[in-house]
Amino acid sequence: MAQLDVAIKALDEKEMLRLYHEMVLVRRLEEEAARLYQQGKIGGFLHLYIGQEAVASGVLSVRLPKDRVLTAYRDHGVAIACGIEAKVVMAELLGKATGAAKGKGGSMHLADIHKNFWGGYAIVGGHLPLAVGMALADQYRGDDAVTICMFGDGATNIGYFHESLNLSKVWKLRLLWICENNKYGMGTSVERSSAVLEMRQKAEGYEMPNSSVNGMDVLAVRAATQDALATVRQSGTPYFLEIVTYRYRGHSMGDPERYRDSAEIERMRKDDPIALFRSQLMAEGHFDAEALDEQDERVEMEIQAAVEFAESSPDPVPADLYTDIYTEN
Amino acid sequence: MPEITIREAISQALWEEMERDSRVIILGEEVGLWGGTYAVTRGFYDHFGPERVRDTPIAEGVIVGAANGAAMAGLRPVAELMTINFAFLAMDQIVNGAAKIHYMFGGQFRVPVVIRAVGGGGRQLGATHSQTPDAVFAHFPGLKVVAPGTPRDAKGLLKAAIRTDDPVMFIEHATLYQTKGEVPEGDYVEPIGVAKVQRQGSDVTLITYSKMLQLSLQAAEQLAAEGVQAEVIDLRSLRPLDMGPALASVKKTNRAVVVEEGWRSFGVGAEVASRLSEEAFDYLDAPVKRVAQEEVPLPYNRELEQQALPQVDDILKAVREVL
Q1: CATH for B3-182 (3.40.50.970, 3.40.630.30, 1.10.3720.10, 3.40.640.10)
Q2: Per-residue tens of pLDDT for chain B, all 323 residues
Q3: What is the CATH number of domain B196-322?
Q4: Catalytic residue at B19?
Q5: Which residues in chain B are closer than 8 Å to A105, comparing Cβ atoms?
Q6: pTM for the complete prediction?
């Protein structure tokens, strides 16, 4: 496990380019997934991360490999940022045996234990207690890893959220709670569902240190997460970070979006995290358009390869239906 | 062999497993300073310390959820639910969590959690504290469900539950804690998913588990005095359900009564009777009878509550109907 202690990457130009590439990769992966969904090649639900790329990339760029990560069902971007290959994500979306969960999990249940990514969970708030238990296991063994638990604004209204924040504070666990506030729990806005508009206010009730950051700015997310992680590591107690973001697509595919008008989406598109980062990188003279276009082209090839891999991968065989129900027969 | 109570058996299993394996921790309401509301963990807090015997807030969702998470991350948590009625507050963690996580992520994670839950009626605790909903938990693939009826099985099955890498719902009966019986000396386990013949007989088969095992054994005694030899099969585990001994017995006796404390509809008896008709139809000389709880929420009044719960006389009556 020594490898898990390597230091985080410095924010040099190489890292900036990696961040840009990763965000574009997530964006294009999602666009491609939407296309395949419309072709009927992806079934079930499909919750796209488009608009929220800076959150996953910013947060995961500063975690140490030993830090555990859990998230909710909008998990493709987090999976990629945790290091799962695009082709393995795509294969899972297509339900293939080569997918992250061997085709048994689907879009909402990506995971890779070897990347310390402990899964996407589809019951709102249901993974917060799991994060408490994982952080407890680390504390019990004397490990100093931080458990990073990401969830949406919708999860802050459910009992699990309060049970988990409370216990994480009582037990002084190394937990970084990250609320991705994209302003809607499915189609119900924060204004219509939450007694307070800033999700970080809910941490105040548990005397938990907290802050809020603009989730459309990947470097701001990165810096805020770095500070939050440092606080958890130093204090050995939980921290609550709210990351304010926006999802440009519907909650899932087939969302009629009667709950918001297109003007709002257009207005928010001006804050597109990828366009913002791109212009930032150029304005500050780190890269010219040509260098960034080159990354875009690289992504196109990767996405194409991922789709080819997924489409040509085998389906699980009928006998796989009965495997992994129990660890033993 | 020493004779101990079921309470002592469960307590010994926990104690010995905690001594054996430092990954085993206990968490739940009043398990520590209080010593357990049924006194199962009395003395544990002082011996093993607050890190291993963790008092929690009254918040069943996070008790079971944190136990699941700690299990995934390498511990062997035993979560105690003060009563099985409170498991409904943790149902999502049991059903959508513990039972699914291994399968749904393609086998990457294991959830070696034990959820101890005390169930059963008969103590005038009213409708919300007296249920026997064991069959509900047995419905879900991915869970193992164990419900012992003797000290030997309570100790051996709890040890097996702690040692397996799968999630186990370990169901105890509140009125069985004082029940005494012999247990082997030293370390032993009883296998999960294996039923057991608790009394041999040739005339009728009683298929049962947990508290109703004790009533069935009493009924068998009375029947023996009348010259009827009842064979008593203890299922011990509801999932995986081992029908082997029951089928073998029915092929010999040709008559069966299923005895459970929970409600009749969609219950353990319904499942067992169905399996008997599927797998031993040609051997049956009478329809399989079910003895179960009246289909009412349990009332507080002592007489009414006893009226609703299965009694030895109900078993005797059912046996006479199939003979």
Answers
A1: 3.40.50.970
A2: 899 999 999 999 999 999 999 999 999 999 999 999 899 999 999 999 999 999 999 999 999 999 999 999 999 999 999 999 999 999 999 999 999 999 999 999 999 999 999 999 999 999 999 999 999 999 999 999 999 999 999 999 999 999 999 999 999 999 999 999 999 999 999 999 999 999 999 999 999 999 999 999 999 999 999 999 999 999 999 999 999 999 999 999 999 999 999 999 999 999 999 999 999 999 999 999 999 999 999 999 999 999 999 999 999 999 999 99
A3: 3.40.50.920
A4: no
A5: 104-106
A6: 0.96
d(CA A55, CA A89): 18
Cβ-Cβ contacts under 8 Å, B105 against chain A: 101, 104-105, 109, 111, 119
Contact A164 B62 (CB under 8 A): yes
> Both tokens of residue A299?
């992504």
Looking at the 3D structure of chain A, how many domains does it have? 1
Q: Could you tell me the CATH number of the domain that includes residue A112?
A: 3.40.50.970
Q: CB atoms < 10 A from the CB of B93, how many?
A: 31
> Would you list the domain boundaries of chain B?
3-182, 196-322
Comparing CB atoms, the residue among A68, A109, A138 nearest residue B104 is A109
The yes-or-no answer to whether B3-182 and B196-322 have a common fold is yes
**Considering B8, B60, B271, B305, which one is annotated as catalytic?**
B60
Q: Are A177 and A156 in contact (CB under 8 A)?
A: no
Find residue B239's DSSP bridge partners: B145
Contact B253, B227 (CB under 8 A): no
Residue B204 pairs in a beta bridge with B230
Residue A214 located in a structural domain? yes
Q: Residue A96 half-sphere exposure, CB side, CA atoms within 13 Å?
A: 19
Pairing of strands B76-81, A184-185: unpaired
B66 chain-A contacts, CB cut-off 8 A: 129-130, 132-133, 136, 167
H/E run at residue A302: helix A289-312
Question: Cβ separation of A104 and B141 shorter than 8 Å?
Answer: no
The two beta strands, A147-152 and A68-71, are parallel
What is the ipTM score, two decimals? 0.96
Q: A54 with A273: CB under 8 angstroms?
A: yes
b or e along A105-117 (b: 16 or more beta carbons within 10 Å of the residue's beta carbon)? bbbbbbbbeebbb
Torsion of the alpha carbons at A220, A226, A229 and A230, rounded to the nearest 10? -130
Q: Which of A130, A146, A317 best probes binding to B when mutated, by most B CB atoms within 10 angstroms?
A: A130
Rounded distance between C-alpha atoms, residue A109 and residue A46, angstroms: 11
Distances B246 to B23, B216, B251, B303 between C-alpha atoms, Å: 37, 14, 9, 33
Residue A4 lies in a domain: no
Is B220:B260 a contact under the CB 8 Å cutoff? no
First to last CA, chain B: 37
| A15 CB neighbour count, 10 Å cutoff | 14
